[in-house]
Amino acid sequence: MVIIFVKKRGNIEMRKWWFAAAIAALLAGCQDEKAWHEQPKVVRHAPAHGDNIAVSSDGRYVYTANIDVDTVTIINAKTKTKEAEIPVGREPRQLALSPDGRTLYVSCMYDDEVDVVSLDKRTVVDRWKTGIEPFGIVTSPDGEEVYVANYRSGTVSVFDAESGKRTKDIQAGDRPRALALTADGRKLYVTQYLAAKVTVIDTKKRRAVKEIALAPSPDKADRKKSQGIPNTLEQIVIAPDGKKAYIPHLLTNIDTPIQFEETVFPAISVIDVTNDVELPDERKELFAAINVTDVHNETIIVSNPYDVAFSPDGGKAYAVMSGSEDLVVFDLRRGGKATQILRRIHGNNPRGIAISPDGKTLYVHNAMSHDLAVIKTGGKSPYAKAKQESGTIRLIAKDSLSPLVREGKTIFYSANSDEFAINITGNNWMSCASCHSDGDINGLTLMTAKGPRNVPSNILATKTGLFMWDGSRDDFTDYIHTVQGEMGGMTAIDPSKPLPPKVQHMFDAILAYLNDPRSFPVPKSPYRKADGSLTAEAKEGERLFNGKGNCLSCHGGEYFTDSVKAVGPDGKLTTANTAYLHDIGTANPKDRASKGDARARFTNPRTPKQWDTPTLRGVWATAPYLHDGSAKTIEEAIRRHRTKEVQTLTPGEIAAIAAYVRSLQ
């Protein structure tokens, strides 16, 4: 700026001079602003996907969404130090970088919003309201649009990046979760988490144009070989050449009684992105494409695959196994099979992986220990071995969870047989989360010694009375029978005796996690009106629920169950009180009577006519229904009740009650 002093000028002349100077400065600023806006737009020319970790295009920074701490972290990749930790909304699940690298979009699951973070200012500058429980997120190649998967709403929202306006909601199937976008931005792939389908959205037409159902892996005579129904599609990542997409998930064998070596298997399915079909022969699974042996010539068992990263040239794929806490390396130039398993990534529960632009470094995001593991790839050679650097990089200043709750959550998601006071699983096969997907349901009915059992939700599980479908447990520590019989862990313990203090502490920690109100909030219902109130049909259903249907006789109180009344003379829950177990005519021909278990000294026998009353809060999100999963809808579950009141209800009245039940939250 140049300042000119003029003597003997009057006030009017001075005001005119200052006005002209101000106009000139304003015009100059406008020219600068115009010049800034006229800079060439940065356009991404590679496939993209949302994730809980991202690396800047120049490789200088690593960004993480710190799931239950409600922050995002910026790590300097060169110095391996944390530069910033930015508070965001509750439960940030995934993030996406704008193509110009100046903005970070964060899906905040429990606040139903996307937080927009300016990386220049390193703060949240805007918040966009989404559908219920946003999860996957990705930007268009030009950065003008942002796509968000709404897990509970069943939609993908399209946002205008400049205005923040939600311009479209696209139906995307059941529980849409992860997103991947082709390099040209024309096709958006959306995983349906439990349904094991991929919705293909035409971004120009703004609608779903195809649905790809992942095929079951066929049954085998050897039950210990990979087989079963695909579920829990954790991620979808398109290879650098844009021809294939990889989807890490589980296979669950529902044909035989639950046994840790025969029920849950890791898998990575492959989609042909050109023709939008699955390539079943290219699926990576145990004892086929995943078959790396140890020094004893035994296959190394890995579990809970979560995320995949490709080398820049597409020659290798790196997959993190969140349960067993391993890295599996696939050589895609030489048959696509696993060539290395890097055992025990430093840290707990690796859920995200990203690779540096030069392909030399992998960054692994550990969701439970909230730190970053750094692994050197070893280069392009097929004989190169990945090797992790010592230590990890701390991502957070303070944990939002108490030490006991964090420990319990870590155990719940872990299939690491070597990490705790005693193994919670046999030979790294499965975690609690292998059946209770992300802590909730998996939508499947598994065979047990007592008969078929629908996997229940953990939402409000510690608040609603007795445990198990037949109410055969009254203490959480009784789950040692599940750990021993189904997960293959803790087999050295006599369940009829008090547990050793360190083992009891593990159960106390898991219970603390399940009991923490932040762990499993009841999901908001998409069946309510926009203002959260009941629809007219649901109000009529409420009247019938409380009146003619007599549903309150079992589904009463704050939690819509009577199981909390199953107490003894001391006022404590007891399996001996069977007055609140009911026969509503829903027994399955495969159900078998039980003589009880050792933990209860066999004082808890059950018959196929004794069923615990489940809570109805959030039940809209837990299909299928009944203990054997035989009712696909709430209407069907109501009709199956063999009570005199239900038998008098008309189809319209049943529909109204179902509308009310779907609204409970």
From TrEMBL:
<dbReference type="Pfam" id="PF10282">
    <property type="entry name" value="Lactonase"/>
</dbReference>
<dbReference type="GO" id="GO:0046872">
    <property type="term" value="F:metal ion binding"/>
</dbReference>
<keyword id="KW-0349">Heme</keyword>
<dbReference type="InterPro" id="IPR036909">
    <property type="entry name" value="Cyt_c-like_dom_sf"/>
</dbReference>
<dbReference type="InterPro" id="IPR015943">
    <property type="entry name" value="WD40/YVTN_repeat-like_dom_sf"/>
</dbReference>
<feature type="domain" description="Cytochrome c">
    <location>
        <begin position="536"/>
        <end position="665"/>
    </location>
</feature>
<feature type="region of interest" description="Disordered">
    <location>
        <begin position="585"/>
        <end position="613"/>
    </location>
</feature>
<dbReference type="InterPro" id="IPR019405">
    <property type="entry name" value="Lactonase_7-beta_prop"/>
</dbReference>
<feature type="compositionally biased region" description="Basic and acidic residues">
    <location>
        <begin position="589"/>
        <end position="600"/>
    </location>
</feature>
<dbReference type="InterPro" id="IPR051200">
    <property type="entry name" value="Host-pathogen_enzymatic-act"/>
</dbReference>
<keyword id="KW-0479">Metal-binding</keyword>
<dbReference type="GO" id="GO:0009055">
    <property type="term" value="F:electron transfer activity"/>
</dbReference>
<keyword id="KW-0408">Iron</keyword>
<dbReference type="InterPro" id="IPR011964">
    <property type="entry name" value="YVTN_b-propeller_repeat"/>
</dbReference>
<dbReference type="InterPro" id="IPR011045">
    <property type="entry name" value="N2O_reductase_N"/>
</dbReference>
<dbReference type="Pfam" id="PF21419">
    <property type="entry name" value="RoxA-like_Cyt-c"/>
</dbReference>
<dbReference type="InterPro" id="IPR009056">
    <property type="entry name" value="Cyt_c-like_dom"/>
</dbReference>
<dbReference type="GO" id="GO:0020037">
    <property type="term" value="F:heme binding"/>
</dbReference>
<feature type="compositionally biased region" description="Polar residues">
    <location>
        <begin position="604"/>
        <end position="613"/>
    </location>
</feature>
<protein>
    <submittedName>
        <fullName>40-residue YVTN family beta-propeller repeat-containing protein</fullName>
    </submittedName>
</protein>
<feature type="domain" description="Cytochrome c">
    <location>
        <begin position="403"/>
        <end position="518"/>
    </location>
</feature>
